[in-house]
Amino acid sequence: MSGDIVSRRGFLVAGAGFTGLTVGASAVEIVTGVGATSESDPTQMGATESLLTDHGVLKRILLIYREYIRRLTADQDSDPAALFHAAQIVHDYIEGFHEGIEEGFVFPRLLAAGKQTSTVRELLTQHDRGRKLTIKIIQASTTMKMASGVPSPGFASVTGRKDLSRVLSQFVAMYEPHEAREDTEVFPGFRSIVSAKEFEDISRQVRKIENSRYGSDALAGFVGAIADIEVSVGINDISLFTPTDN
Asked: Residue 31 falls within a domain, yes or no?
């Protein structure tokens, strides 16, 4: 697969390899210097709707990860670059932006209100573990030569494929319940403790941050990049997931 899939949309830094990765998004950096405003714009998504849509982006990446788990386990030929680009989207957009929004706006308000505290703390732990797993996935799938001189070490040997499959499985197994708990408990809980005015202000701040980092068509760009990856992996046809009528 061409390396242009993500970079041509301008969302990832060209040439940024694993040496530029960081563990953990800074929620403080995300919210610093962004002032609240009460100007209403009913055509725009609210903060929780935006977070739910981001989860749809992540779900599509989890399907890509599942396909790689299947291929690695079956010892089938696979393109490391497609997995690399999918993991870069997770690192940049999901972990670097989406989770930063949760950590900067949603989780602190729930903790301050004494709501869902144990769940929120576990979700924070999972954010940290997930970022570490993502770095492993990117390092294992990069087409750049590692210190050992071997590119894509997660594909280069039986041991490497087994280890990469295990890491991908851990990520998928953690994030499926993670998303489900946020969608059904955390986000509704957050909405229940903030006023309409505060929610509107937060929503505008989130949009301002996203536009500043990615431009006004961030979602469309990332969805387009994921769609390209799905084509390259062969899972772009949604009918593939439809069971036969027995």
From this structure: no
178 contacts 128 by C-beta, under 8 angstroms: no
Q: Which of 69, 18, 64 is nearest to 229 (CA)?
A: 64
Per residue in 103-120, pLDDT (tens digit) is 999 999 999 999 999 999
> 126, 133 in Cβ contact below 8 A?
no
What is the residue whose two structure tokens read 């390092």? 139
Whether 97 contacts 210, CB under 8 Å: yes
CATH of residue 101's domain is 1.20.120.520
**73 falls within a domain:** yes
**162-190 per-position pLDDT tens digit:** 999 999 999 999 999 999 999 999 999 99
On whether the CB atoms of residues 137 and 153 are closer than 8 A, the answer is: no
* Count of residues in the chain: 246
Dihedral sign of CA atoms 179, 182, 184, 188 in order: negative
